[in-house]
């Protein structure tokens, strides 16, 4: 990521987020900045607050304190839909795809388009041809060559292809931010590389990505900056150029304080 990007206004920013579940503190004054056109990896040990942070960024949880900003404007998400409304799309580890529906129908799931004129407005008929055409264009733009037949049911796809469908859906509608939660966790080496290629394509299109991952080699391969989460807070922000994987693990476990910003 260039200095110009780093100096620009964050696309998404969190300041002092606090979230408690009874006596369990999920977030304890957590900060995060995501800049235009970057891949920001979020890493941390189990219980570090990664999932709670992402849920607060996407409207799945409402923080008890702190503030969120999108392009410098303060926002308050009360549901995942309110985050989607401002262009933040999330692909969770448990893929929210409909196996019996085809690829195109999954890309437009919850955003189905109706046919023009009375057929759509009165008879409420879906524009299946139009959605399939747009789905093909989106898959082509993302360089996904293995999913050209958008009429194939998702249940017939491999794990990597299903992940590609979910990422393509997020890219098609996530105009500002795409958040990926462990996108390669259940994939083999070849399919993992395809997903990393998708992430790189999103970045090249100017769409910033937050990547939550336990896979340190992949993080250091694809990320511009790495947000290290520990004990409900941001312990450090590092880069693959400034720190090694050993350094990152040391910060995660508290063996090293790390640098606060990169």
TrEMBL record:
CDD domains: ABC_Carb_Monos_I. PROSITE patterns: ABC_TRANSPORTER_1, ABC_TRANSPORTER_2. Pfam families: ABC_tran. Residues 12-256 form the ABC transporter domain. The keyword Nucleotide-binding applies. GO terms for molecular function: ATP binding; ATP hydrolysis activity. PANTHER family: CARBOHYDRATE TRANSPORT ATP-BINDING PROTEIN MG119-RELATED, SUGAR ABC TRANSPORTER ATP-BINDING PROTEIN. This is Sugar ABC transporter ATP-binding protein. It comes from Serinicoccus chungangensis.
């Amino acid at each position: 990521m260039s200095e110009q990007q780093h100096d620009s206004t964050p696309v998404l920013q969190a300041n002092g987020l606090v979230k408690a579940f009874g006596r369990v503190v999920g977030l304890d004054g957590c900060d995060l900045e995501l800049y235009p056109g970057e891949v920001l990896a979020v890493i941390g040990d189990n219980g570090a607050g990664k999932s709670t942070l992402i849920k607060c960024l996407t409207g799945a949880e409402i923080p008890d304190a702190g503030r969120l900003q999108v392009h410098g404007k303060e926002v308050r998400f009360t549901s995942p839909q309110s985050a989607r409304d401002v262009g933040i799309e999330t692909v969770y580890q448990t893929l929210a795809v409909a196996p019996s529906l085809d690829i195109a129908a999954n890309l437009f799931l919850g955003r189905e388009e109706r046919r023009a004129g009375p057929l759509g407005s009165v008879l409420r008929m879906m524009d299946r041809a139009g959605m399939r055409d747009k789905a093909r264009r989106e898959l082509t733009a993302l360089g996904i060559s293995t999913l050209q037949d958008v009429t194939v049911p998702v249940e017939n796809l491999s794990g990597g292809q299903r992940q590609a469908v979910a990422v393509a859906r997020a890219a098609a509608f996530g105009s500002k931010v795409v958040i990926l939660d462990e996108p390669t966790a259940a994939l083999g080496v070849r399919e993992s590389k395809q997903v990393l290629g998708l992430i790189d394509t999103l970045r090249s299109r100017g769409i910033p990505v937050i990547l939550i991952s336990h896979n340190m080699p992949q993080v250091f391969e694809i990320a511009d900056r790495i947000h290290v989460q520990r004990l409900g807070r941001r312990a450090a922000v590092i880069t693959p150029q400034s720190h090694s994987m050993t350094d990152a693990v040391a910060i995660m476990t508290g063996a090293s304080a790390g640098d606060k910003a990169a």
